[in-house]
Amino acid sequence: MSRGSRRPSLLFWLVLPFMAFVTLLPYAWTFATSFKRRSDILSTPPTWIKDPSWFNYESMLFTRGFDLYLLNSVIIGVSSTLLALTVGTLAGYAFSRYKVPAGNHLFFYILATRLGPPIAYALPMYFLFSELGLLNTHLGVSIAHAAFNLVLVVWMMKTFFDEIPVELEEAASIDGCTAAQAFWRISLPLALPGLVTVAMFVFIFSWNEMLFALMLSAGDSNTLPVMIPSLIQHTGTLRGEVAAAAIVQTIPVIVFTFVAQRHLLRGLTFGAVKG
Amino acid sequence: MAQVILKDLNKEFDGLHVVKDFNIVIEDKEFIVLVGPSGCGKTTTLRMIAGLEDITSGEITIGGRVVNDLAPKHRDIAMVFQNYALYPHMKVFENIAFGLRMRRFARPEIKRRVHKAAEILGIMDLLDRKPRQLSGGQRQRVALGRALVRDPKVFLFDEPLSNLDAKLRVQMRAEIKRLHRRLEATAVYVTHDQVEALTLGDRIVVMRDGVIQQIGEPMSVYSKPANKFVAGFIGSPAMNFADLTITGSGDSLWAMGPGMRIAVPAARIPGLRPRIGRVVTLGIRPEHLRLATEAATDDSGFDAVVDIVEPLGSELLVEVNAGSVAFTARVDPKARLRPSQPVRVLMDSEQLHFFDSDTQAAL
Questions:
Q1: Contact A187/A253 with Cβ under 8 angstroms?
Q2: ipTM of the complex
Q3: How many CB atoms within 10 Å of residue A159?
Q4: What is the pLDDT of residue B274?
Q5: Is B72 in Cβ contact with A186 (below 8 Å)?
Q6: Closest residue on chain A to B83 (Cα)
Q7: Are the beta carbons of A186 and B87 separated by less than 8 Å?
Q8: What's the whole-model pTM score?
Q9: Which of these CATH numbers, 3.40.225.10, 3.10.290.10, 1.10.10.60, 1.10.3720.10, describes A63-268?
Q10: Residues 159-188 of A with CB under 8 A from B
Q11: What is the dihedral of CA B107, B109, B115, B120, to 10 degrees?
């Protein structure tokens, strides 16, 4: 289905620049602020960058110790993504291919983790993790993020696997594969576009997540989003550092979105039209 | 290569009995075609042989070994699927080589075998392509290549030609037949197309509602159908049927109906005599009818009116109406026939079939 030939309407040209302006201006302002000297940030009248400097980034990363939090964010983001993808992909595959006892109920039930407010799960999780000695560890936050993301992975991966004809696996089983080999060599590679899409969603969720990270970690295991508010101090707000941290925080999201845009679109519309 | 024995094979799905007491001995190197309308259990039977479907009861033996509980990969079979089931992310070479790789063949041997199979099938120049870059016919060849590269004991075909257009289907049909002769392998082929069944099979198995109706060589199934279902299913256009009452006495019997009075041939009289006064189904194939335009008095004929004339080039299909029955005749293309024209339909009395109108079994 091609809608490319349709010319955008007048409404499109009126609304889009307005939306882009509203969305991008704060970001552009934050970006500019992150390169300003402290004296320029609140100057009247406001100015764009007069004399760009990396001072805010250096201060944030090295003086305020955010290099550690950045590393924590990466570790927790990657490990929770791997965990959620491994468990969720296998579960999604099982829901797609096998008769799971009470399958439909179970499939719906895992949605429950997303139906309530996150805080309702965060408190019990806190006590649970405290008993298990998982508080203030990378593993604890990773598990929490993975658990919260699992439903997305299971639901999306199931639909991707549903689109792969079962005959391919049957052909593989006749060609000499065990069920596991057929999954690994045939179905998983074919579900890869979907997997990449889901991985991005899951990673970005973990990367931006604040509530669980705040409750379950402290000090050395804190992530970047949790620590940004710490730059608002009783002696004043370190606006330059806040802006720098915010920009750093958005980099992976932007890179992922642009680099994987085509993948993302393909993944989201996967199966809409049979290829 | 191997003999395949299916013994008392049964399959039930959620209480639905889809294959019932299936028994057959498929000889080594034999080409068996399972044919029947959709839902007759032919594909399920094939999938049970492949090991893709569990058996409810019964026994499957391949090459002297009971394979009931063996995984598909241990049965030494190859299968060609209706939708080809080529691996989309692999090139043609990898598709064909996959089964050999899984069985840990040496690299040079894989290459040799893949090239040999590709040569047989004429797809050497496609080996570097992905399946999506191939036409339907080419995909079908790759699917065949994937099956024959392994040199399995038994080839299983699940309606392999039904996704191809008519012309290609005829071409691939001949190719499969040639291939089978060359490979000398046991083959089980499933189709709903009776022409494929007749042309390919050494023997054909006609199925209906999970039950075998008849097993036999194509021509014997065609000329001596075991029941009315087989008679109607095999052959195109289908056999003509009419419900007639047997009457008569002494040396001659007649099959009577509205506007019809057909002499029962002498050879069939002893068999039909007990049915005097009862209704039987008479069947005759379109090619065993002749249409006479001038008045003829023949015992094995009846008067009718031409309804539709369909020229097929090499022959003419003529649908005629006689009372409430419609018959199709296959006649000489030079015959000059027009709709509404009265004709005398003559039957080749040697080729009459009679079926019990209750059990539908051949009499």
A1: no
A2: 0.85
A3: 16
A4: 85
A5: no
A6: A167
A7: yes
A8: 0.83
A9: 1.10.3720.10
A10: 165, 167-168, 170-178, 181, 186
A11: -150
